[in-house]
Amino acid sequence: MLYSESKERENQFVIALKIGFPFLLLAFMLFYLFKISDNTLEHLILSISLVPIYVYYIFYLIYNGFKSTLIEPITKTFTRKEILERIEKLKRVRTIVLIRVENISDINERYGITIADNILYIFSNKLNDFFKSYNFKDIPIGRYGGGNFLLIINGKTKELTHLLTIFSKELKNIGINDIEIKIDFSLIESNYDSDVSNIVKKLLLDIDKNKIEESLLPNIKPDEFEKIIIEAIESEKFIFKFQPSYDKSENIKILEVLVKIYSKSYGMLSYYQIERVVNQSGYETIFYKKMLTSLVKEIKNKDLKDVCFSIKMSAVTLRNNEFRIFINQLLYKNRINPNIFILEFGEEKKYKEIKRFNEIINQYRKLGFKMSIDNFAGDNSSLEYIKNLKVDLVKFDIEFTKYIDDSVYFELFSSYMELLKKLKIKSMVKFVDKADVYEKVKLLNPDFIQGFIVSKPKSLKHILPIIEEKKV
After folding, report:
1. What is d(CA 63, CA 428) in angstroms, rounded to the nearest whole number?
2. Residues 398 and 408: beta-carbon distance below 8 Å
């Protein structure tokens, strides 16, 4: 039995006592009154008047009993409210663990919601039994949402990391009911912050650290991150670097825009470091609006007729109709032709309303924007998008450059390149940093090559002379 289930039983027992005790007290009181008094009519009237009050009291307790349940119905673990309150009320330092069933949405889609719910129930019990086997008893486990669970454990983070790694490997090998289970986790001490919401935000950020190199993540608390973002948006403290790409004639035709924001306390922060906080805090669209406004100011009146600016955008923002109107008006007011912009996007999972998405992409293209898919053929939805969306350019995933000496990767690389030519979609290979890799990539005949072999990211004032030199 889960610790949460035992606490729920205690909670229900207390409610039962609250219901039963007044009844016993009322019965005893009436019995006593009947015994010492001969006025039965008076007692009868008193009894009749007390019964409706008691009935109302019973229904009130039952109603509040349903509302005050400590566990959620699917996994029988603590509710989100209960587990967060328990973290907030901790008087001693404990380790807080966020553990996530990464593929629960895939299980839900493939096997159905009933089986997915059963998987989560079995998972929470396996997790509880695993820690019991290592003498960790009465562990509060609560479901934070989806496949995310929060645990409060009295143990050192190093030891718990080791145990959770063992649990992860065991579960990956055996699965649950012959279904593969993928999990990830993050840990933090409860004294990290007095605000429990900041503890959870930090855990969520850490569990996604595989998307960003850990060394790039500054030790900034989530609430401080948010303040930095708000400050950057309000003061438009955006710093731009531009990374050139060669075309087949080794002329610079595309400049990829790399965005950073400035913080007095932490210096420069790249967008990759703050992206999740921007999205979760609800600043995504306003961030892009302010960023583009600053970018337009920087490139306005510059002689860059033969160069395009490639800007990585959120697909969610691109699907925002109000944003599309904004960017069109922004460029119109500043007399900048949209055809110098390549709007680059990518998503891990395919957007379900794909026909609607294609309509949106076509609306941008009609305005003059070029559209690009990022991390093509990587672990994402790019291959699905290439089948359904009309785009002008794709940028290959870093794996194809990294493993270009692998025969399988090279054959796939070559085949994809031929496919793109047939589809009349231009291609770019990124992260080309060495001369030998550059020569191998050139054999594949991509339309554009980018990387340190071409140039490191530079400010616009340092890029302009290089472009002019190439023209001569």
Report:
1. 62
2. no
